[in-house]
Write a structure and sequence with these properties.
The protein is an alpha+beta fold. The chain folds into two domains: 152 residues, Beta-Lactamase; 185 residues, Heat Shock Protein 90. α4 runs antiparallel to α6, α5 packs antiparallel against α6 and α9 runs antiparallel to α11. The chain starts with 12 loop residues before the first helix and ends in an 18-residue tail after the last strand. The relative contact order is 0.07.
Amino acid sequence: MQANDNPPPSRSPAPLAGAVRTRVREKIRAYEQYRFSSRQSRALNIFFDLAQEFDETELIQLLCVLVLRLLFRLEAELYCKNGAGEICLCTPKSPALPSAPPPFVPSVRQEGNLLYLPVRGKQPSSGESLPDSLLGILVTRPDTASGKGADDATPLFLEKFANRAGYCLHNRILAERHLRHVRFLRTLARDIGHNVITPNMRIKLLLRHLEEQMATLGTLDRSGEEFRSLQASLRGQVTALAGHFQNGALFLESLLRQSHFDLGRYALRCARLDIGPQVVLPQLEEYRVRLEERGIRLDPESYRLPDEPCLVLADLGLISQTLANLLSNAVKYARPYGEDVVPRTRCTLALIPDAFSGSGPGVRVTVVSTGPPLAREDEARLFHEDFRAADTADESGTGHGLSFVQEIVTAHHGLCGYERLPGGNAFYFLLPLAEQAPEKCEGAKPPQKE
C-alpha cells in the first residue's frame, strides 16, 4: 500500500474526554444549585422528547406554551421573529395576556405577574450561527383562575426552559434552512439543464454547419453570386451564434448568483425594464429560427409592441428565461389545427388596466400556439413540478419548464396561467407595472399548488 493511501492519524481522544468530563461536572453542580422539582424536570424531559419528534417549527413553538399550560397552569404565548425581523405572535392568543407585542428584552424581565423571557439560539463555534441569536420572546403569567402549579414555575426554571426552547428552535431553523438549500440545489440543476444546457446544443450544430460552409467557401469563385450568397449566410450564422452566446451567458449569470446559494432560493436582482424591447423582442429573435426549422410560422403581430412603454420591475435574466420556456414549448407542441394547414404561434404584449382585480394595472405576455386544446383534466396541474400533459409523449421534456415559470413569476408578484382557445392554447404571465410594483423584489417563494 502506498503512503498516501494510509488514513490520516486520528486525534487523541484524551483532550476531548477531558473537556467533556469537565462540562459534565459543571452541569452536575449547576443542577444541584437549580434544585428543580420533579415536575420541573418532567417538563424539561417532555419538551426535549417531543421537540426531537416534531419536524415542523410551528409544532415546537406550540409545544413551548402547551407544556407550561398543562404542567404549571401558566398562561403563555411565544412571539418569534419573522423574515423581516419583526416580533410576531406564533402561538394561539391568550385572552389573559396583553394584546400588544412584548417589548424587546435582552434578559428576563418581570412586570407585575407578567414574565418576559428572551428565547435565544445557541452560539456554536462553527459558521452555522444565525444572524441574531434572539429568536423570540416567551410571555407567561399564572392562571389566576386555578393557580395550581404556578408556584412551581419559578423565574429560574422558566429562564432555563426558555433557553432550551431556543436551543431546539435554533436546531430546527438550521435543519429547515439546510433542507431548503438542498431542494433549491436540485431545482437549480434542473433549471440549468432545461434553460441553458439543452438550448446550447444548438451551438454545436451551428458550429458544425459553419465548418462545412467555410470548407465550401474556398472552392468558389469570389466574384460569383454563389460566393456572395454563402458569405451572407455565414454572417447570419455568426450573428446567430453571438446571440446564442449572449443569451446563454445572461441565463447562466442569473442562475448562478451567490445570493441564490446564500438564501437557498432565487433572489431577484430587479431593475426597471421596458419588457417589450428588452425581453420580448430578444427572445423572439432567439426562437425565430427554431420555429422556422420546425415549420412553425411566427405571426408578424408578435413584433408589434404597444405604443407606450411597458415598464416593469423585474430581473432581466430570470424573466427572460420565463418567456423562453413558453416559446420553447411552442417550438415543441405547436401543431396544424382546424383551418391552419401549418402550425402557427404568436407572442403578444398588452397593457391591462385592471390586471390584478382592483390592485392596479399590469402587462401581460402571452404565447399562443395552434394545436388541439389540452385535456381539461390536465389544466389544474400544468404548472406543477414534473407534470406533463397526456398529449406530449411524442416530444422530449421533463415537465419542469412551467413550474419554473410559476416560481419566477410568483417571485415578481405576478400571475401566470393557461387559456383554452378555439384554435389552440395560450400560456401567459402578468407582471405589475413598475409604478405599482414593490420598491424591490424579494427572493422567490415556492408557488402555491392546488
